[in-house]
Amino acid sequence: MNMQHAYSCLLLACALLHAATAYPFFHEPNALHRCPAAPSTAPPVATASSTDGPATRVNMHHPVIIAFAAVFAVCVALIAAFAVRRRLASCDTSKSVSHDGEQDAIQYGYVDDVFGTVAWFAMCTATLLLQLSLGALCLDFYLDLRIFGSDVFSAFIVMWHVSCIWLVVVFAAGDWLADAFRIPTTLEFATTVRVVTPRASPGGTLDRLARLYLRRFGAGALDDVGVRKVRHGVPTAEPPGKPRDLVHDLVQRFVDWNAHDAIDVAVEDGSITVRCLRMPFDRHLGRFRSAPAESNALEFPSLTVSQAVRAELFGLFYVYQLHMLWVWAIFSYWRMSACSLVLVVTALVFKVRAAVSADRKVRELASAHSMATCVVVTPDGDVPVPVARLRPGDRVRIASESTVPADLVLLQGEVVVDESMLTGESRPVRKFPAANAQDKGRQHQLWSGTSVIQSAATSEAIVAATGASTLKGQLLREILFPAAVEFVFDNELAIVILILCTWGIVGGLCTVALLNGTDGTWFYSMCSITCVLSPMLPAMLVVGQAVASRRLASKRVNCTQMTRIALAGKVSVACFDKTGTLTRSGLEFSSVHAIERRSFHARPSDAVDDLPGLLRLALGTAHSLSALEDGRLVGNAVDLEMFKKSGCAMDGSVVRCGDQRVEIVRVLPFEHGRQRMSVVVRDLSSGALSLFCKGSPEQVAALADPALLPTDFDSVVKRHAREGHYTLAVAHRPVSSDDLSGSREHLERHLSVLGVVMFVNPLKPCTTGAIAELAPSTRCVMVTGDTALTGICIARRCGMIPTGRRVLLGACRGPPPGSAVFWVDAANGHPVDDDDVNDADVELAVTSRAFHAFVEQGRLGDLLPRVRVFGRMRPDDKVACIRAHQDAGAIVAMVGDGANDSAALRAAHVGLALSESDASFVAPFSTDSGTIGAFVDLVRHGRAALATNLAAYRFLVLYGEVLIVAKLLSAYFSVVMDEAVWMALDVAVSIGLSAALTTARPSPGPLSSRRPTARLLGPETLSATIGTIAINVAFFAVVVAWMFHQSSWYLCHEWDGRTLDNMMAWWLLADNYEAGIIGIVTFAQVAIVAAVANLGGPFRAAWIRNRVFVVVLGAYVALWSAVVLGGTNALSCLFHVNCSRASNEMPVRARLDLFAIVVANAVAVWAYHYVVVFGPGRRWFQRQGNAASDTVSKSVAVSL
Hints:
By secondary structure, this protein is of the alpha+beta class. The protein has five domains: 1-20 and 61-198 and 231-262, no CATH class; 368-481, Distorted Sandwich (Calcium-transporting ATPase, cytoplasmic transduction domain A), CATH 2.70.150; 534-556 and 938-1002 and 1018-1054 and 1066-1191, Calcium-transporting ATPase, transmembrane domain, CATH 1.20.1110.10; 573-583 and 764-928, Rossmann fold, CATH 3.40.50.1000; 598-754, Calcium-transporting ATPase, cytoplasmic domain N, CATH 3.40.1110. Strands 20-40-39-38-21-33-37-36-34-35 form a ten-stranded mixed beta sheet, with helices on both faces. Helix 1 runs parallel beside helix 13, helix 8 packs across helix 10 and helix 31 (979-997) packs parallel to helix 33 (1073-1093). The longest helix is centred in the C-terminal third of the chain and has 41 residues, at 933-973. The radius of gyration is 37 Å and the shape is elongated.
């Protein structure tokens, strides 16, 4: 069930309603005179007749009608002829495939056809012709052109239904519409391929449709792109057939359709090898390997204004809105139709401008370097080549102060780059040459779009990825094609629309019965539907999010997907990265715990001068820093901090520590897989060579000589980690010149550990307060790449783990898979049993390996709600953690600060990036404040936006219910409220009060301990809606009964309804007591439901603080009071209410009685909301619901 389906049912129901209303429209009127007593003896007033004689048939011989019928018939004939041709030419084109155990995908192939193009234009012409005909009927009615004869309304009803059904069929086709005018063909010859991939989701299965375009290439083009002829090598296997180019989500891929093979590229030792893989083309297209001929230009079709307009208008809601505007226009309610049209066009302009502006920004990001050139190294010399024509395997030179043209692997020289634009890393990063082109460690890779600050003259790199396969291209794809997110609010809104549609149809049928077949029955029934289902409903639900987005921007939180704001209000699990998120980005040097003669010193020392000379030299040399031309040192933040505290000085590759001078002769860069780095230095006085190694204590200890390692090394390191220190071990080994020619593994062996260097990662100032504010309603967990023990310490310090709470750590023995998990007390390392783990009063922490072991064993679901810290989590592990929480039914947020968090930020329901780098664009939210206080602001405004959405929904639904009751009573009395009343209600009141509701501010106090409901069909929303409707209907009945008992002045319907010749002149049916009193009560009840919708609750500020709403409502109430209490005046006569000229002025006592009834109505509704909806009644219902849930759970447990 989705919104499109709901609108389809609504529009089809409106069309079918004609069967119940059209027949009485052509019969003689017989309006009933309904009074509790005998009819009044007052003489009848002038009748509301608009025709002078019997209606004539539609003039079918007018040239305009003949031309319209002819053109429309030709269009339908062309479409039908193409349908026959398509049927005869079609073949079995679909193919169902599966990929990696996921659900089957179906692919359909199509080819363009000239006759299909003609039929497409015929369909567009027929659609436009139907709208022109409705417009012509309206002009004929107002200008009395008599083109369609005297019975314009009958012709309008027929054309309205034809147009409605036509557009429902056209728009319901959606993206499939264009394919309906193509010829199905086999996938080998297809020019367009459609892929339908069912995707399981919490709310059901959605069909995700991807558009794929294919271009054919000839033999010459193949040579140009380098598939058959490769610059740096010869293919090991030449692909058979002629590959074709496929573009999907920015990615250009080459596929051999005959052999069903894909072409892959391997880069080895600076040469390129092309090989064919047995990889069917009909696998999941997002999994195809990138081809060597992929263009390096990140190009995608620009979004033009016309395309943006079509994309926005191509929805069934606009069909509903358009046809209701036509009904209002011909029903002499053209002023409201014009006002609504202006609002729709204005909203459309703003949406189109926003879409085009966003597209322009993404395009500027994508094409930032596409027009530049770079130098490619070839056997014939250096050749300048446009960046867009780079191919994987090209060897390029890297110049200083340039932009990296693609994702590269550095092969020669050293380079310093600024990656802040892409990764958020604030400091320049030093890159080292790789041993071969297959070595793709981070320290060897240059990312497309980053800036080169300094480069050696001999620096060369090989192109590893181009275009959308680069890191920048992947980010752009995630921006352009974000993952779909389902929300219970949106899912239930479709059901609510169907319910309201059904009730609108019932109201329309009741109107038909009450009017007893008078003229205009069909129009009155259509207006009843618009009363129940306001055309403004979807727009008002978006306005609250737009207001919240602007307010978040004032809090330095940028939003790229407004639909996620309401989701932020329902976050139940918040995952936080540690470094740079909860703590400061940089580490601060704390102390060094030195080791001498296999023993630790008594205590760590923060005075470097007190350290042994070899350990101090290790601090000054075990790094990968380099000096820029201006003398600045660049490199890893830990290296910079450690070198600064060592007191050493660096001049090029020479390091001076006190009286000792050494030269760094070789650097073995840090690698994530090894978790260490090493340097080889030469003593300039003695010529002796030494290796210094720095890395994680576990990795360094594994390489150390056991005879030289302290026996308590592991326990001391864990103790420091529990204290919140980031620990690195440093080790030493003398080497010879012969060792330099050996492998890295040969150099890094038999080490002697010199000590443990400790850093602290201070919390950011607002972290503790933010966690304390979130904790009552949101489970906060830490997902960090650091050790679990360090994460536990930080979690205790920031309050994520309550003070004094016991923490158990889950770790693994043995290599995965099949690792055995054991639990220890994080405070002392002592083993614990399963009873301790099952204790509800303990917190749990797990390592990455334990996390995956629990997944393999199927035990994660039971433990997940109790795990507070996830340690040593890689980027893909963070995504798996978020997916696990989502599978458990939680609304998950992720807060991170770097590019390594981008995948998790995108996977979460609500992702907040604490940076403004390009990588942050994949997150729905980003901030440059750098603190998680921005997340608290996001949650606060998200809750307010969700509560505002619910308030706007309740107001518009209750507003519609008030109007439908008023309309049914009007039909009962054969009266209609004056046009001025309807204009005030439909324009000034509904739009004004709805817009004012959205200006409610978030609650200024601490976050509430509960989250707002998102259920439109939940107990809270239903109780508020149904209870208010019941109270209002009851008071309407009281007013009617009171009116019938006013015998001293009340004249029940001053004219006999049976004398009415034509109720289409509805504006003449307002000058009576019934219409006036109905208008007064309707005005009052609309104000009442708006006032209760503005009640703040725990998520929005108090109603009195919504100054815009208070001013608007105050002006509205003042106007209503002047009409009711003031007697005959300009306002009352404008609305034909309580006016002597309208024959419905009431005595003072009657006006006061009516005023008192309305005040009692307001008091009853407010009391109901304070006692039942928001007060003790709500808590009682919650307790009953929880008790029922516990009973069901226990019953299920017993049965299991």
